[in-house]
Write a structure and sequence with these properties.
The structure is a homodimer of 188-residue chains. Chain A is mostly helical and 188 residues long. The radius of gyration of chain A is 18 Å and the shape is elongated. The N and C termini of chain A lie far apart (42 Å). At the A-B interface, helix 6, helix 7, helix 8 and helix 9 of A face helix 6, helix 7, helix 8 and helix 9 of B.
């Protein structure tokens, strides 16, 4: 990797962590400068604006998460194992793995309404992918006769994602993983 | 009400709406100045800092909500009616009633980690009250033999709150009440 590329990657990683913890409108360029050790010009050489950096940082965090979800779920053999694998990835977010600050999609969903419209669009797409992955787990379960075929697939996916994401938020508010675990143990 | 008190109340109402929509760190004093039509000094005459205003605005929004919850739940006769009343108050938040921007407690829970530590403490307390109210509905249901006495009260309250709050967040992300309704109809 060329030096310029390495610097860009380093900025992206540090910014992702700051944005996810402090919010996209809440994060200041000065805190990103401090974390990266770069001056304003050093950051703007790679990202033309704070919004551009925010968009790429969000994309970075959801790609990272998306890969984890897909890998974990595809390697599991049964529906219960797949659901378990899905929940384990979310549980990682409770303790800040792979990024600190909780679920990046929910953070954007609950952040500023109009501050970053492109970011909201990205969040909608990412949440859609998360719901689709959960729907595929349910469909797999119906096909393998582990889940009742009369299940409303979309509704069940929304219930599972809502409750797990909601519990993740509670666990982060109280800095206590038991809220997430309380909900997760109902499903697995 | 004296003129000074009226002005203070007006600032509080407008600021509550801005903070809940744009986030506590994301809201600028200039947008509050614009909405209230006041200069900086006119706001600082009533609130000594942005943080003080944020704390009082959060308190204002959760008091408003808390009253709605208690009134709705206490007037309902059966467990199902109480749960229904509880859900109706949350459903109000989907469409921005009584304040725009979704659930103020979840917004703070998912906002900046360290920006406003006192605000996070207030959010913990408010969420605790919400969970307690849900637990009381469940206990009422057990006493009136509408809910199985072997139910884990705390766990069920966490599941219901997590899923409803999570679904409320999804409905706000997509500007589509059906996510919340999909989860709510499972319970009532």
């Amino acid at each position: 990797m060329r030096k310029g590329e390495r610097t860009k990657q380093m900025i992206l990683q540090k910014a992702t962590s700051i944005f996810n913890q402090q919010g996209y409108s809440g994060s200041s360029l000065s805190s990103i400068m401090k974390e990266t050790g770069l001056e304003k010009g050093g950051i703007y050489r790679h990202f033309e604006s704070k919004e551009e950096l925010a968009l790429q940082a969000f994309d970075y965090s959801t790609s990272l998460l998306g890969e984890r979800f897909k890998e974990a779920v595809s390697q599991a053999a049964t529906t219960l194992d797949k659901l378990n694998a899905f929940i384990e990835v979310l549980k990682g977010l409770v303790r800040g793995d792979p990024i600190p600050g909780g679920c990046p999609i929910m953070n954007v969903a609950l952040e500023a309404d109009d501050a970053y419209p492109l970011l909201a669009e990205q969040a909608k797409m990412s949440m859609f992918q998360l719901l689709s992955l959960m729907e595929r787990i349910i469909i797999f379960g119906i096909e393998s006769k582990e889940i009742n075929p009369n299940t409303n697939i979309k509704q069940l996916a929304i219930l599972w994602i809502s409750s797990l994401e909601g519990a993740l938020a509670l666990s982060r508010l109280y800095d206590d993983p038991s809220y997430f675990d309380d909900v997760a143990t109902i499903y697995i």
